[in-house]
User: Fold this.
Amino acid sequence: MKIRIISHCLPLLCALILGIGQSRGQSGYHLWLDYKPLRDELSVSYKTQLAALLFPTTDGTDSIAKQELLDAFNGLFGQVPEQVDAIRQQGTLVVGTPSSLPAMAQETVFSHVAQMGPEGYGIYTATIQGKPATAILANTSKGVLYGAYAFIRLLQRGADIAKVDITSRPKVNLRLLNHWDNLDRTVERGYAGFSLWDWHRLPGYRDPRYTDYARANASIGINGTVLNNVNANALVLTPAYLEKAAALADVFRPYGIKVYLSARFSAPMELGGLPNADPLDPNVKQWWKEKVAEIYRYIPDFGGFLVKANSEGQPGPQNHGRSHADGANLLADALKPHGGVVMWRAFVYEDTEPEDRAKQAYNEFVPLDGLFHDNVIVQVKNGPIDFQPREPFHPLFGAMPKSQLMMEFQITQEYLGFATHLVYLGTLFSETLRADTYCNGPNSSVARVIDGSLTGQPVTAIAGVANTGTAINWTGHPFAQANWYAFGRLAWDPDADAGDIADDWLRCTFGNDGPLVHALLPMMMQSREAAVNYMTPLGLHHLMGWDHHYGPGPWISGKPRADWTSVYYHKASKDGIGFDRTASGSDALSQYFPEVRALFENPQECPEEYLLWFHHLPWDFQMRSGETLWEALCRRYYDGVATVGRMQATWEGQKGRVNEAVFNEVRDLLAIQYQEAVRWRDACVLYFQQFSGMPIPDGLGHPEHPLEYYEKMEFHFVPGI
Ligand code: GCV
Assistant:
């Protein structure tokens, strides 16, 4: 018995010992803000260039910026600059705003400040009061904070700060994380432990981790956070929870981060005892008005509501015979006097089985264009189905010119291998942002729609479903940190290059090590395409396991709704595979502008990445490569796995270059990813082979097990549901 107890406890003991041995510094806890010492020559020159700091602080925000600069200098080149109140002959870093530095505000370099807006910053090599200096300038202390982080990033990269001339302001106003965190601390589609919000001990105990969370977000320009799941519990709107949310808001405020809440549309019934939640009912309006006023008493700078309504069983205005616009405007009117916004999600599909789920949001929302009040933003997922490994951009982008639209990306990897697979999402985000909607002729990219430059919408926003949790490294997979990072950077500048961002992340995270970046950057850049290939190549989608969404499940059928099954989407049969969304099929393609339609309409010309998204084609369809469709499909599946094999080899080459704990963790996760990629490939190839009746092309190899083996696999207690 004793032996059994010991053997049962052994893993726990080992975990505890390992946990103690693995300090936060070694674990990835410090994210991209780990200020590792730079090379000696760089340190020497930075010590001279940054010997003195002239930085008069005015509030909590610029005080944070100052401390961050001091910590960074100390870590990067081992020197804390002398704090001065007059500019030195040389080697002074000047930081502030025209009002914090009134004696200098007439200097030429301050002329840039006019272009920075309330959040932008500038970093310059300049002559101030006749002396050479480096300057971080902004209009506000928030801008100063963002400027400080940008300057630190330059140092982490070992940039030449003798000639810097950077002016940067965010292209999108509201840059938010959406937490799908439940009040019991489980996280829907969360793969990095439990929710960061310790509701039980709030508001009394403010975990220092809340500060670290805010710091990480501020460092990449995120300025808002929706604390709770869109599948919302109305309790979050009760005084007990508002007090807790207010405590979080207090911690986040100096970092420039506003708190938002997901609101349950039926809250007036559940909390207020009203007989209905009809948005046109005066009592319902009054209830929301009072509730919102109460929220602002707790959180004076509350950002507003995020709402999932009439979607996947959530209550909404349609329950009362009203439209999404009626519902959104109800909340918007309550928020308006306080300056809050409503982010109303367009992720909707009919309760009855739709003919093509991809068409639903467009069909429901386009007729409402122009009806939303001016503090409503319609939040649209990047693609028309649901965060699949690859989707074409959502046809709503560009199709509602009289409404404010925002982007919703998913950072957590619900459909991309959870926190087990190394998949860099900067490329996915960028692919959507750069896609041309042609809504206003050429160069009408999705980025131009959401940054308001095409529509002139005053409120612009972008959200990412968070991948954070209580895991010591925040995101589960060490490389999943890069996805949080890339989201923030692209939210600030949707035109930024995903490769440059990955390069920054690597240098800031692992140290400014050229050979390491040279090896790992291509690996990151190929990783998403690899996942697409071993999961859903050539435009296939929604092939994952039932409900938990883990692993392959192309055979999923016979569920309560056809559009929750895989067979609904791939439509494989003896005659071919793919979803015909052209005029001969569901005609979802007609929801796009003519130039986009022309791009996808003809299977001979359709980019292969989207082929089976838009077309149902015979197995022997001739691809541009000369292969048959079946051969091309097999080859992509095998290529995907082969890429993961190369990623493993690349990582092995970094032994000794990254700390041992992270090295081992990534190595082991890549091994799991490889196994899972093989399983995806083999399960899908065997499943589709039943219909194609064709052999796997020579030289690719053959699955180890028969199809039934994969179909019978069961997984219990999969995280995230
Ligand atoms: C929060 C998908 C996910 C759900 C999620 C939903 C949504 O269906 O599987 O977990 O619910 O999207 O975005 O609302």
User: Anything to note?
Assistant: The CA atoms of residues 211 and 520 lie 30 Å apart. Residues 180, 188-189, 230-231, 308, 312, 347, 386 surround 4-O-methyl-alpha-D-glucopyranuronic acid (CB under 6 Å). The radius of gyration is 26 Å.
